[in-house]
Design a protein that fits this description.
The complex is a heterodimer of chains A (about 1100) and B (about 375). With about 1100 residues, chain A is of the alpha/beta class. Chain A is built from 39 helices and 38 strands. Chain A folds into seven domains: about 120 residues, Rossmann fold; about 60 residues, 2-Layer Sandwich (Dna Ligase, domain 1), CATH 3.30.1490.20; about 130 residues, 2-Layer Sandwich (D-amino Acid Aminotransferase, Chain A, domain 1), CATH 3.30.470.20; about 180 residues, Carbamoyl Phosphate Synthetase, Chain A, domain 4 (Orthogonal Bundle); about 120 residues, Rossmann fold (3-Layer(aba) Sandwich), CATH 3.40.50; about 60 residues, ATP-grasp fold, A domain (Dna Ligase, domain 1, 2-Layer Sandwich), CATH 3.30.1490.20; about 150 residues, Rossmann fold, CATH 3.40.50. The chains are: A alpha/beta (about 1100), B alpha/beta (about 375).
Chain lengths: ~1100, ~375
């Protein structure tokens, strides 16, 4: 059946409202840009007018395009209702915007807003969505269709618990209800253990849950698609490397399943189809199971009746364009009439056959957060992921590990100094390091059986991990130390007897050339520097290529080769001898665009937007665009985002392999963030042409000393700095410039983050974290200028001349990482002279570096004195925000320069901007138990939002609301560090109290405010309250006395008062709005005061098209 | 490492390593894209005389369960007949060790024990592209130092070392059908099953649906069989090279007992109904073949393994097309307009593959005998 009758019979172009997922946060990340963007493509093909509501300005789906209206507003009922009133859409689609969109839809439905405006909900009906979200209702429904759910009993006495456990059968898991942080829970293998757990649990909780323990069970998922004709298919299944117990977002996931027999595969597939049919799902659905590793018994754990992270992964793993097809299906098309876009000749009603294996690996970045526990469990902590493709399991596992660690050692990373006891703990208590512990265990000759017992990981996965560890030893064993001083000779001597078969074996086991070089040096026990490794690895490359050992290019075609396919979705593997055939596309020029890899703190959807813009521009210009990326959550890895997609490692070796095959004009390394930027120099050294900035420019901008020398030459100021190699150097530097100073450890392996030292005590602490101060590992110390404004300049340059550049300004003073800062375009508070100097310095730097492409510069401004912080000779995080706000696509302009054109920017006027844009950071502290949600010089945000308004105030309020900072209603809790900050808070306090918002404060702040005539309730610090039984601040937050917390730390020292940290953590955990920066508080207070009754009085704006 | 080559009738030679028994073997070279169910496929009699190339690179992960005793009636899961039927296997990569609660041996050990040779380490994806572009390709597995030939019950061995065995040019039913009738199950409904190389899961499905199944040799005298239903099973080879089976089946049309044909059985039934069959350029061999119920928008994902297909526009007036393939529109099932005779090209019993069409068995059994 073609389009739904309700839409087809309108007699005009239907309008459909698509809800996005907002800023990226843990658990809800870039996958929804992928799904929303595909949905928009599917809708536009039908001629449908699309209205997008999503404040995530950095996404591809919020691009201004023909047929699309973009509303950069919070995905909240009041704003979506306003959009509905304005646009009067015929239908709404919520299945492509994650939990945020789904919750919004349910609320719109609850409040009768959809009904009132006659908006049809396309896809799975609201009542079914509601049922899948409700634990009890869902369990009832599953039971009614004979689908097993894990038995669980709520007990109120020890006797009841025993009865329940007997009913369920041991082992059981005991959980005290209403207890935080898993307090009072544990496993019981028999009645004695149960009683021992239950007794104390009842002491603190009236109710105890006794549930069947599924510890060690396999976790398996199926992705299902069902159309309105009740045709249902499973796109693929996935099996977790880790057994049940770790959130699937934090698990290593393998697609398709590896350890399931046909029987098991079909039993779970049948169950998935039974469930979606019984629920009446229309569109995409994900079903999660626990499967007994010793029988056919299984339980249904969860059903997600929407596009999810898993479906994005399934789509990239199988090649089936799930989101695109799901969008057509919710419009009313059935799977039998939709072509499979990958083959062009078969239909969408089929189940992909894979002839490769894919592995998803999470990226955690836990070291970026102060105090967070590294243990993995039921709460997701990862901030991104990669997916690898191989034709053997070890090949895929090794690729994935290198992709996610961004280090050549990959899985061969050692865990030095780990005792046997520590190792066993690292195996039995899962953390972000467990995979490395598994390999380490096999290095130490532990048996598969022992490691299986400690980890619960399926023996098949362990067996293949062991093969890697065994081969590591074999490689190291080849070291011939006679020519150790010369890396090339050493390499040749060591591998002279290694023949084709052995090279093939190692490569098929997934070892990279650099990894092999590292392992070879490991066999000598002498340390190699990075240049030795680089030379050795290139020698290894030469040796094996001489023997004909090269990877082959294979297509992902959804049919395992059964049908000829024009697919452009590619990967490289050593599991084959022949490249897949390619028809001639008639294009003469081609460029390889390097994507950003895994999302992580600092690299997010913004860089994917840059890569996608670049690819599109290349295609428009008649070039063949070839994207290399390995992040399944991205739009850049969509089958139709480029002419050819290599879902591959962003490593020197792999890019050289791809260039050998593709022979491109050059490589674009400046659009994917820091990871590809780091590849620019090695690629240049290997003879690959860089498009855009020359290698010399990149080196000059990246090398601190060279850049600093350039600034001196140009007479441009910079904060004083020193690469200190000894304590003495540090002491004399600090004597000269005084505290505070910014400390930057040389390399992130130590895990130490950047930090600010305010005195010798905190300096000692920072240096202790940096661990390995030595001539080889200098620590960079920089003057930290307090009270300065931070200004950014984003633009494009050609041959050293800036063609255009946009000035933006941070709301916060310098000291907050630019990725966490609130940014405004155009700048609001800068002196004309400041702007003039910034632009002039920008021009001088551009000329000095010879910039030839996209750039971002950061400046400090204090009383018109301008100092340069850094210059990135690449596209920056701020590009999509700045581009969309001012109406000029900087990524497009940069791409033009790269291919030798001069972009026509004559119509663009920097002074005539349509509105004000504010970008705010999105944090995920709620999920990171133990982490202190304080902002500092190290970036901590996981995403961002960007909103536009007629005024700065309006844009600020929208952006803050979209990032979770809501207008206070109940009360504000204030605790404001220093005397200076207390004074700075007074104007805001005046505005808040004039608006009638009750103020609460910690004792010091309370008396200060009282002294200044404010009515304020004093609340005790948590530590004080214990003594005299008062309501403390944490309690007040918990009880909901306040809904807004302002907590300004005395300084951005890492281990600030634990009291302040407790308050901030409580705010994050209980969903209070939290501000920790006084400039932001001031701006916010002015904005809410200037804009009373904001939602009602606000006039909606849509994003204007590029000029 | 034991070297082993695959030689194609087109002249190409690919070298890899041996898995399984060090024997020479020859047959039609075919591929399957199923990602699970390798023991089921290798023991599926429809693959008799064929060298089976698995496109999924990781085969053998979950090992092989306890094999059945020949002629036992317990029909253990994981096996579709008592022994491997394929002439040989082609795999991408090893998974020499298997781990599964149900496994007692690795694929390699089992193939060795059962006298089946295979080649690993070939570029199977490339091989599939060759098979796809060269119809009716034959192949021969040549271990570097072969210890003999792959034997089929002693009945067949290539006469010359350089010969290629083509299961499509002769009647191969004798090699896969039972020699003596046997009854399995104790149910109310009595099914006469014409064994052309029946997959055990057909028998399991019937037994589960309260049937007593008489497994009959393909060349039995059907007129002497006392049953309520007829089932013509799957099997290998060219449906037109089955001696008088087609005539004997056509005589069943004189009566009104319900008939179900599956795969080869569907082709036999179609031929008996007057239709024609032809060899496809390359067959349907996968777990993801989409079919739809003609006249509806209702589709099913099916497991398939066939080289021959019933030709369009050759069916008699009494018959109609029941199912078609959603990709190439080929006939996937037919039914008689008035009588309870029907047949399907796909495998409703699956094993391996999706079980979406298992309802066909219960629908068949619910036909009231007129």
């Amino acid at each position: 059946m073609p389009m739904l009758k309700q839409l087809a019979s309108l007699g005009r172009t239907p309008t459909v409202l698509l809800l996005g997922s907002g800023g990226l946060s843990i658990g809800q990340a870039g996958e929804f840009d992928y799904s929303g963007t595909q949905a928009i493509k599917a809708l536009r093909e039908e001629g449908i007018q699309v209205i997008v509501v999503n404040p995530n300005i950095a996404t591809v789906q919020t691009n201004p395009q023909a047929g699309i209206k973009t509303y950069l507003y919070p995905v909240e009922v009041e704003w979506v209702e306003k959009v509905i009133e304005t646009e009067k859409p015929d239908a709404i689609i919520a299945g492509f915007g994650g939990q945020t969109a789904l919750n919004c839809l349910l609320e719109l439905d609850d409040k009768g807003i959809l009904q009132k405006h006659g908006v049809i909900n396309l896809g799975t009906p609201a009542e079914i969505l509601r049922m899948t979200e409700d634990r009890d209702e869902f369990a009832q429904k599953m039971k009614s269709i004979n689908m097993p759910v894990p038995p669980s009993y709520a007990c109120e006495t020890v006797e009841e618990s025993i009865k329940a456990a007997n009913e369920i059968g041991y082992p059981v898991i005991v959980r005290a209800a209403y207890a935080l942080g898993g307090l009072g829970s544990g496993f019981a293998n028999n009645e004695d253990e149960l009683v021992a757990l239950a007794r104390p649990a009842f002491a603190s909780s009236p109710q105890v849950l006794v549930e069947k323990s599924l510890k060690g069970w396999k976790e398996v998922e199926y992705e299902v698609m069902r159309d309105s004709e009740k045709n249902a298919i499973t796109i693929c299944n996935m099996e977790n490397f880790d057994p049940l117990g770790i959130h699937t977002g934090d698990s290593i996931v393998v697609c398709p399943s590896q350890s399931l027999s046909d029987d098991e595969y079909q039993v779970l597939r049948n169950a998935a189809l039974t469930i979606v049919n019984a629920l009446g799902i229309v569109g995409e659905c994900n079903v999660q199971y626990a499967l007994d590793p010793h029988s056919l018994q299984f339980y249904v754990i969860e059903v997600n009746a929407r596009l999810s992270r898993s479906s994005a992964l399934a789509s990239k793993a199988s090649g089936y364009p799930i989101a695109y097809i799901a969008a057509k299906v919710v419009l009313g098309y059935d799977l039998l009439e939709l072509k499979n876009p990958v083959t062009g000749i078969t239909y969408s009603f089929f189940e992909p056959a894979l002839d490769y294996v894919t592995i998803k690996m999470p990226r955690w970045d836990l070291l970026k957060f102060t105090g967070v526990s590294r243990l993995l469990g039921s709460t997701m902590k990862s901030v991104g992921e990669v997916m690898s493709i191989g034709r053997s399991f070890p090949e895929a596992l090794q690729k994935a590990t290198r992709m996610v660690t961004e280090h050549a050692a990959g899985i061969s990373r050692e865990l030095p100094g780990l005792s046997q006891d520590d190792l066993e703990t690292a195996l039995s208590e899962p953390t972000d390091l467990r995979l490395f512990a598994v390999i380490e265990a096999f290095r130490r000759d532990m048996s598969i059986e022992t490691v299986h017992k400690l980890t619960g990981i399926n023996e098949w996965f362990l067996y293949h991990s062991k093969r890697i560890a065994d081969a590591e030893k074999e490689i190291s064993g080849h070291a011939d130390t006679t020519a150790l001083s010369d890396p090339a000779k050493f390499t040749v001597a060591s591998f002279k007897k290694v023949g084709e078969e052995t090279w093939r074996k190692w490569k098929l086991l997934g070892f990279g050339d650099e990894q092999i070089a590292l392992l070879l040096y490991r066999g000598t026990e002498s340390e190699a520097n990075s240049e030795d490794i680089r030379i050795s690895s290139l020698e290894i490359r030469r040796l094996r290529i001489e023997l004909g050992v090269k990877p082959v290019v294979k297509k992902i075609d959804t049919t395992a080769g059964e049908y000829p396919s024009p697919s452009n979705y590619l990967y490289l593997s050593y599991g084959g001898i022949f490249d897949d055939p390619f028809p001639d596309d008639g294009k003469t020029f081609s460029a390889v665009v390097l994507g950003g890899g895994s999302y992580r703190i600092g690299t997010s959807v913004e860089f994917d937007w840059c890569a996608v813009s670049c690819s599109n521009k290349l295609q428009e210009s008649g070039w063949r665009s070839i994207i290399v990326n390995c992040n399944p959550e991205t739009v850049s890895t969509d089958y139709n985002a480029s002419d050819r997609l290599y879902f591959e490692e962003l490593s020197l070796e792999r890019i050289l392999d791809i260039c050998d095959f593709e022979r491109p004009v050059g490589v674009v390394a400046s659009m994917g963030g820091q990871l590809p930027n780091r590849l620019a120099t090695p690629l240049h050294k290997s003879g690959i042409k860089l498009l855009g900035h020359r290698a010399k420019t990149i080196d000059l901008a990246e090398d601190r000393s060279k850049f600093s020398a350039l600034l001196d030459e140009l007479g441009i100021g910079q904060p004083r700095w020193l690469a200190a190699r000894s304590q003495d150097e540090i002491n004399s530097f600090i004597e000269e410039i005084g505290f505070p100073v910014l400390i930057r450890p040389s390399y992130v392996l130590s895990g130490a983050a950047m930090n600010v030292a305010y005195d010798s005590e905190s300096l000692r602490q920072c240096l202790a974290d940096a661990a390995d101060l030595s001539p080889d590992h200098p620590v960079v110390i920089t003057e930290f200028i307090e009270g300065a404004r931070e200004v950014e300049l984003d633009g494009v340059a050609k041959n050293g001349e800036i063609l255009t550049a946009i000035v933006s300004e941070h709301v916060e003073n310098a000291g907050v990482h630019s990725g966490d800062a609130t940014t405004v375009v155009p700048a609001q508070r800068l002196y004309v002279e400041t702007v003039r100097r910034v632009r002039r310095f920008g021009r001088d730097i551009a000329k000095g570096l010879g910039l030839n492409g996209p750039f971002n510069m950061q400046f400090l401004a204090k009383e018109n004195e301008i100092k340069v912080i850094e210059c990135n000779a690449r596209a920056a995080r701020s590009f999509p925000f700045v581009s969309k706000t001012v109406g000029l696509n900087l990524a497009d302009a940069a791409t033009e320069i790269m291919i030798g054109n001069t972009p026509n920017l004559s119509r663009f006027n920097e002074d005539d901007l349509p509105y004000v844009g504010v970008k705010a950071a999105m944090f995920s502290f709620k999920r990171l138990g133990g982490a202190d949600p304080v902002l500092g010089v190290e970036m901590a945000s996981t995403g961002e939002v960007g909103c536009i308004g007629e005024t700065f105030d309006a844009a600020l309020l929208l952006a803050l609301e979209a990032s979770g900072v809501r207008i206070p209603k109940k009360g504000i809790l204030v605790s404001s560090g220093t005397e200076k900050q207390k004074l700075a808070f007074l104007p805001a306090a005046k505005l808040f109290s004039d608006m009638g918002i009750p103020l609460f404060a910690t004792p010091g702040t309370a008396s200060y405010l009282t002294d200044h005539g404010f009515e304020v309730t004093s609340l005790a610090w948590p530590s004080e309250a214990e003594n005299n039984g008062e309501t403390d601040v944490v309690e007040a937050i918990k009880q909901g006395l306040v809904d807004f917390v302002i907590n300004i730390p005395k300084n951005t020292k890492r281990t600030e008062l634990t009291n302040g940290s407790k308050v901030r953590q409580a705010a994050a955990r209980y969903g209070c709005s939290l501000l920790t920066n006084m400039e932001k508080v001031t701006a916010f207070s002015k904005a809410i005061s200037n804009l009373p009754d904001f939602v009602n009085r606000h006039r909606l704006l849509t994003l204007r098209h590029y000029q | 490492m034991h070297k082993c080559s695959l030689v194609l009738s087109s002249g190409s030679r690919f070298s890899g390593e041996l898995i399984g028994a060090p024997l020479t073997s020859s047959g039609e070279i075919v591929f399957t894209t199923g990602m699970v169910g390798y023991s089921e496929a290798i023991t599926d009699p429809s693959y008799f005389g064929q060298i089976l190339c698995f496109t999924y690179p990781l085969i053998g992960n979950y090992g092989i369960p306890l094999p059945p005793h020949v002629d036992a009636t317990d029909l253990p899961k994981g096996f579709e007949s008592a022994k491997p039927q394929a002439a040989g296997v082609i795999l991408t990569i090893d998974s020499p060790e298997a781990f599964h609660w149900n496994s007692i041996q690795s694929l390699d050990e089992w193939l060795k024990r059962e006298g089946v040779p295979g080649v690993i380490g070939l570029d199977t994806r490339h091989l599939v592209q060759i098979i796809r572009s060269e119809p009716n390709l034959l192949g021969r597995i040549e271990p570097e130092s072969a210890e003999g030939d792959r034997m089929y019950e002693g009945a067949f061995a290539p006469t010359q070392k350089t010969a290629f065995f083509d299961p499509g040019i002769m009647n191969v039913l004798d090699y896969v059908s039972r020699k003596e009738p046997i009854t399995v199950g104790k149910g109310k409904r009595r099914v006469g099953l014409i064994d052309c190389g029946v997959k055990w899961n057909i028998v399991r499905q019937l037994v589960d649906l309260d049937c007593e199944v008489q497994l009959l040799p393909w060349d039995s005298d059907f007129s002497s069989v006392d049953c309520d239903y007829w089932l013509i099973s799957n099997g290998p080879g060219d449906p037109t090279r089955t001696d008088d089976l087609i005539q004997r089946v056509s005589r069943l049309f004189d009566e009104d007992r319900p008939i179900l044909g599956i795969c080869l059985g569907h082709q036999i039934l179609s031929l008996a109904a007057g239709a024609l069959t032809k060899r496809m350029p390359y067959g349907h061999r996968s777990h993801n073949q989409p079919v739809y119920l003609v006249g509806t928008r209702k589709g099913y994902i099916t497991s398939q393994n066939h080289s021959y297909v019933v030709q369009d526009n050759t069916l008699g007036d009494d018959w109609e097309v029941w199912f078609r393939n959603a990709n190439d529109q080929s006939i996937e099932g037919i039914k008689h307009k008035t009588k309870p005779f029907r047949s399907i090209q796909f495998h409703p019993e699956a094993s391996g593959g999706p079980q979406d069409t298992s309802w066909i068995f219960s629908e068949f059994l619910s036909e009231v005998t007129k």
